[in-house]
Amino acid sequence: MRLWLRTASSAVLATLCAGGSALAQDNNTLDQVIVTATKSTATLQEVPLSITAVKGETLQAQGVNRFQDLTGTIPNFTVSQSPISDVISMRGINSDLQAAGEQAVATFVDGVYRGRGVQSRFAFLDMGSLEVVRGPQGTLFGKNTVGGALNINSARPSAVFDGSISAGYEFEQGETEVLGFITGPVSDRLRVRAGFQYNEMKDGWVDNSYYDEAQPRYTNWAGRLSAEADLSANAKLFARYDHSDFDTKGNPIEIIHLGGALAPLLTSLGVDGDIDGKARQGNSSPFLDLGSAFVMDGGTDELMARLDWRTPIGEWTTIAAYSGYDFLRAFDADLGPLDVLQVKQDEKYEQYSLESRISFAAIGKVRPLAGVYLQQSQLDNDGWTYANTVPLGAPFPPLNRFGRFQQESKLWAIFGQATIDLTDKLEATGGLRYASEKKDALQEITLTNATTGGPLPAPVLAALANAVLEATPHVLRPSSKENDTSWSANLRWKPTDEASFYVSAAHSTLGGGFNAAYFGTGGARPGETADQYQQRMLREIAYRPEKATSYEIGAKLRFGGNAELNAAIFHVNYDDIQTSQFTGGTSYVVGNAAAARARGLELDGRWRPVDELTLNAAIGYIDFEYTDYKNAGCTVAQIAAGGYANGALCSAAGVNDLTGRTNQITPEWTVSFGVRWVKPIGDYQLTVDGQANYVDQFYGAQDLDPQTLQKAVTKVNLLVGVGPRDRDWVLDLVVRNLTNERTFQTANDVPLATGSYFATIERPRSVALRLRVNF
């Protein structure tokens, strides 16, 4: 770690020192990075926010085509995969895993909110730019941005004919990727663009001997059509339509540790309990067998239009959009070779939104902005859990737990912001947003005989089903209404054209809601009436909004055009943190931790000492601590020691007090160092792009179980490309995770196998050959 810090720090210091010689060099100027996170166009150096911004063509050139590839390269930002959804973490705050929850880090594509993980599967499709905006962003972006926001701009149609196609093959896992675009004018006022992306993986990185297949295997494709029209000299209309389909078989899951009563049985069935790229997962009975350990099939659609209209009082922008998806997912939920559990989910989501805002022309020294936002969404999720406990010695037939969750949300908000020029070098900005959201839901649980589909015939059998499936039949109709205010304020000082400094504060919320996976509490308590029992369940199914208040100081520095440094120091207070705790059986408990605080720093810099060479470095440090979290989810050792029937009861008893501890998937240090060298050789040029990324140790589970600790690791990526200097074509060799490090991001208890643990394994070394043709 010390070596890494010295290396990265030296690179950043070199950036600082580069300013002395920069003025003497004219051919090695860094490109200015343009961002739109403030709802206006500005350079990265002008924005008083902690932002990492990169062009889409840069990501494509580096072979980056998914969010997971960015982990370690961006300070205090990680994206990982779990069996349920992607987990986005920024400054120590993670996304909610249960079906009804919103992301704590929101994604926006062309201003359209994508709050659910499935919506962002193809966020890199024909991307123009990516902005990772850290810290609460409630004023301009809205709710559900307590961790930050991912602001993505699609590539726009061009008035000049242009196009590109890229085809590559990865040799280690057998992945084929084809992507490209074509754009050009239809008339003087109309421009169009089409983009596409296709991925097929035949041989994943975990060999599942149960089905004699490597997993994951998938076929994904996405397409985009967009058009931009000049309606008049002062009005412009942009519209696009996206569609995607995905079909996945198998998950990169391994049981990484064996323990408890079932360990001998699992060992005898071929489970080794190591991170070695081997798994034995599946079901053999016709009742549970899927033909694969995991299957998921679905698609997404998004249609949006944006109107920009310059008027005498300012520029008016209106964005109207529809975004939706549907999928069917099923998997072997015991994660091993036992014919015990299968989970099946059918989910559909639709969202309609409208934003209209005006950036007023300057009124003296004041530049105001005001807007309104409307959103309506509908979520439908049906889930089945089939339990065949005969292999475990249970004297009753297979059981089925059916859960239905339906939720309608209606949200409206008004917001405003104003920037005041206090002097020619000092400006102050303040903003406010008021939002109101109403949610109405239906949540239903039934238990049946999975073989016949009929009801459970006896109270004893019902009690056994409750013990195995942790569920009590019920029908609930929860509703909520939230009114919240987000605000932001900053002071920016620009003493020279190449230096600016800022201080800022902001407050934002993550909307409350209902636990779609709430299964009841074992029935009414002694002396509890039916109405009291119903009211208690309505309280238990709900969780409160999460709140974040941040304070930040930062600097944006440029040195003669060929070097730059961005720095930020932050402190964030979180209240009512939303948590999702696995019980160790077959369910999750969703609620609120009391409070936490996070503090740290982010540094990133670039230096181009000569035209052929560019160096970059980034450092992220975070000290995250729960200041009050007495009812955290329990480890299996704590559950066993206390004799609790399940993790929910242990959590309620306050056994695992995580006050003073960190959060899951929160590495203390992330360090990145990169070198890009472009060498002309006659009419051709050679490109070498190397990146080394260090990620500190972290826990993969919410309960911070020691068995889920991922050790610190360094991963190296390398790209070597050759092609003509006019870049008509480029042939690249792309190697990611050069030293073949075996790591995981999320981990947890194996359902019903107390003492054993599983993890979602990250992709090991990949070696791809790719040809890009530009025309």
UniProtKB/TrEMBL annotation:
Residue stretches making up the TonB-dependent receptor-like beta-barrel domain: 292-738
Alphabetized Pfam families for the sequence: Plug, TonB_dep_Rec_b-barrel
Subcellular location: Cell outer membrane
Protein's recorded name: TonB-dependent receptor
Family: Belongs to the TonB-dependent receptor family.
Membrane topology of this protein: Multi-pass membrane protein
Gene3D superfamilies on file: TonB-dependent receptor, beta-barrel domain
Sorted UniProt keywords: Cell outer membrane, Ion transport, Iron, Iron transport, Membrane, Receptor, Signal, TonB box, Transmembrane, Transmembrane beta strand, Transport
PANTHER family to which the protein is assigned, alphabetical: FERRICHROME IRON RECEPTOR-RELATED, TONB-DEPENDENT OUTER MEMBRANE RECEPTOR
GO terms for cellular component: cell outer membrane
GO BP terms, alphabetized: iron ion transport
Residues annotated as signal peptide: 1-24
UniProt keyword Transmembrane, yes or no: yes
Domain TonB-dependent receptor plug, chain residue ranges per copy: 44-149
